[in-house]
Amino acid sequence: MTKYVGAIDQGTTSSRFMIFDHGGNVIGVDQKEHEQIYPKPGWVEHDPKEIWTRTNEVIKGALKKAGLSPSDLAAVGVTNQRETTVVWDRKTGEPVYNALVWQDTRTQDIVDALSADGGQDRFREKAGLPLATYFSGTKVKWILDNVEGARARAEAGDLMFGNIDTWVIWNITGGTDGGVHVTDVSNASRTMLMNLETLDWDDELLSAFGVPRSMLPAVRPSSEVYGTAKGVLAGVPVSGDLGDQQAATFGQAAFDVGDAKNTYGTGCFMLLNTGTEAVPSKSGLLTTVGWKLGDQPAVYCLEGSIAITGALVQWLRDNIGLISSSPEIEDLARTVDDNGGIYFVPAFSGLFAPYWRGDARGAIVGLTRYVNKGHIARAALEATAWQTREVLDAMETDSGVSLKELKVDGGMVYNDLLMQVQADVLGVPVIRPKVAETTALGAAYAAGLAVGFWGSYEDLRTNWGKDAEWTPKMEEGERDKHYALWKKAVTRTFDWVE
Fold first, then answer.
1. Cβ neighbours of residue 492 under 8 Å, at least 6 residues apart?
2. How many whole angstroms separate alpha carbon 402 and alpha carbon 392?
3. Dihedral of the CA atoms 258, 419, 314, 318 (nearest 10)?
4. Pairing state of beta strands 223-228 and 237-243?
5. What are phi and psi of 379, to 5 degrees?
6. pLDDT in tens, the chain (498 residues)
7. Cβ-contact 134, 100 below 8 angstroms
8. SS3 sequence, 24-61?
9. Sequence-ordered alpha helix ranges (H) in 306-453
10. Sign, Cα dihedral of 90, 91, 96, 99
11. C-alpha to C-alpha distances, 329 to 11, 143, 333, 416, nearest whole angstrom
12. How far is the C-alpha of 429 from the C-alpha of 413, rounded, in Å?
C-alpha cells in the first residue's frame, strides 16, 4: 500500500504542498508566496497563472525534499482560499482577468443594488449568507460586466468560473486536455449561488447575479475521486476538495456537534459544527456547508469570518516598516505591559462578522503622547483576540452552545503572547494541536478517506494530539472593561465611506 497522501494548500498569500503519513505526520512540505496586486484602494487581485505555476513548483519541491515520487501517493486533496474568483476560457485555459480575491471590495455597488430590493439578508434563507463583497457571486458578475466581451462569451458557453479549488483541479487533471470542472459543497456554499438545502446551483440566485449556469462547475462531495492527475502528479487520484476553513475544521477532528476551531491566517475564521442541520444565524454569522463525505449527509457549520488578522501584522511589516519579519511582532509587543490605552480596529476592507459593514475603515483610537511602537504592536495582536471574542459571543447566541475550549490552528498560533491574550479575552482554554497546519491535513484526510487510505472518523480522531494549552489569567471585571472599550473603538470605524 502507498504510504502517503498529498495536499495542495492554495492560500491567500502562498501556495504549498504537504505530504502526510497515516498518522497525520508531515513528511514533506514546500511553500512559495505569490504576488498581491492592488490596482486601486480596496481592490485585491491575484494572477491565476502565477498561482498555478507556484502550485507546480511546490509539488515538485515537497516531493524532492521527502525523496518521494508521485507513485508514493495514494491520493491528493485540494484546499483553497475560498471566495477568490477566477473566470477563464474553456478552450485556451487563459483567464479573462486576474482573480478577484475574497478581500476585494470593488463590488460594493453591486451589493448595494441587490440589497435595495429585500435588504442585506435578501438571499440568507437560501444561501446562508448576507449580501457582501466577500462572496464569489458579485465578483463573477463584476468580471462579466466589466471585461470587454466577457458576458457574450459566457452566454455562448465559452467561459468557465470557479473558486481557486476549481481552477487548480481543472488544471491538475489536464486543463484544456480533459480537465475536470468541479467544486465541492463547502466551496460552492461560499459563492452565494448555491442553495443550502439542495446542495446545487439555484436558478433564482443565478438569475439575480446574472451568471449563466454553463459557466459553473459540477457541485460534488468533499471526499470523492474526481479524476486522475496529469503532469507533476501524473497518475495520482484527485479525491478531496475543501475550502480552507472547512478543511481546518476537518483537520482538527471537529466531527461532533458543538466542536469549534479558530484558524489564524490572513483573516480569522471560527467554525462551529452544527451537524446535519443548517442553523440560520440571527447574529451576523454565516451558515455554511462544512463537508460532505461521499453519499453521507452534508455537515453544516456556523462561521464567523474576520477579514484582517495576520494581514495586520503583514501591513505593519510591509507598509509601515514597524517590524522586518512577522515573528518580531511578539517581541515588540512584549516590551510593554499593556496596550497603553489604545485599540486598533483593522477594518481595512470593511468589517465582516458580526457587523458586515462595508462602510467601515481602519482606526487606532485612544492615542496619547505616552504611546510607543510596543503599544501599537500589542494593540495589533489584541485586535485579533477581541474580534474573535465578538464572533464567539455571536456563536453562543445563535447555537445556544457555551464553548468549553477553543482549538486553534494557522500561522499565528505560534505567537505565544497572542494565544495567552486570546485565552484571557475569551475566558476559556485555548488549545494548539501537534499539527497546527490543519488546513492541509483536512484536505489530505478528505482525499485519503475517498480511496480507503483512512477508514473512518475514528482513524482521524486518534491522530489528533495536543501540543500546548493556555488558560485564562485575566479577571472577569478587567476583561469586561477592556471589551467595552474595544466595542466603543469599533463603532468609531462605522460610516467612514459615504
1. 345, 363, 365
2. 9
3. 170
4. antiparallel
5. -65, -35
6. 579 999 999 999 999 999 999 999 999 999 999 999 999 988 999 999 999 999 999 999 999 999 999 999 999 999 999 999 999 999 999 999 999 999 999 999 999 999 999 999 999 999 999 999 999 999 999 999 999 999 999 999 999 999 999 999 999 999 999 999 999 999 999 999 999 999 999 999 999 999 999 999 999 999 999 999 999 999 999 999 999 999 999 999 999 888 889 999 888 989 999 999 899 888 889 999 999 999 999 999 999 989 899 999 999 999 999 999 999 999 999 999 999 999 999 999 899 889 989 899 999 999 999 999 999 999 999 999 999 999 999 999 988 888 888 999 888 999 999 999 999 999 999 999 988 788 999 999 999 999 999 998 888 999 888 999 999 999 999 999 999 999 999 999 999 988
7. no
8. CCEEEEEEEECCCECCCCCCCEECHHHHHHHHHHHHHH
9. 310-318, 328-333, 373-399, 416-426, 438-450
10. positive
11. 22, 38, 6, 11
12. 14
Residue type, 222: S
Contact call for residues 191 and 206 (beta carbons, < 8 A): no
Half-sphere exposure (Cβ direction) of 483: Cα atoms closer than 13 Å: 21
Could you tell me whether strands 200-201 and 223-228 are parallel, antiparallel, or unpaired per DSSP bridges? unpaired
Q: In the numeric block, which cell numbers belong to residue 218?
A: 459540477
What cell was used for 15?
Answer: 501556495
| CA-based nearest residue to 8, from 334, 231, 271 | 231
pTM here?
Answer: 0.88
The three cell numbers of residue 84 are 477568490
Q: What angle do CA 37, 39, 43 make, to 5 degrees?
A: 80
Residue 77 CB burial class (10 angstroms; 0-12, 13-18, ≥19): buried
In the numeric block, which cell numbers belong to residue 312?
A: 495586520
Residue 447: helix, strand or coil by DSSP? Answer: helix
DSSP string, 200-211: EE-HHHHHHHT-
Q: How far apart are the first and last CA of the chain?
A: 61
Asked if 185 and 222 touch (Cβ cutoff 8 Å), the reply is: yes
Cell of 386: 477581541
Region class of 435: left (phi > 0), else alpha (psi between -120 and 50), else beta: beta
Cell of 172: 491538475
Neighbours of 403 (CB within 10 A): 18
Residue closest to 388 by CA, chosen among 367, 365, 413:
413
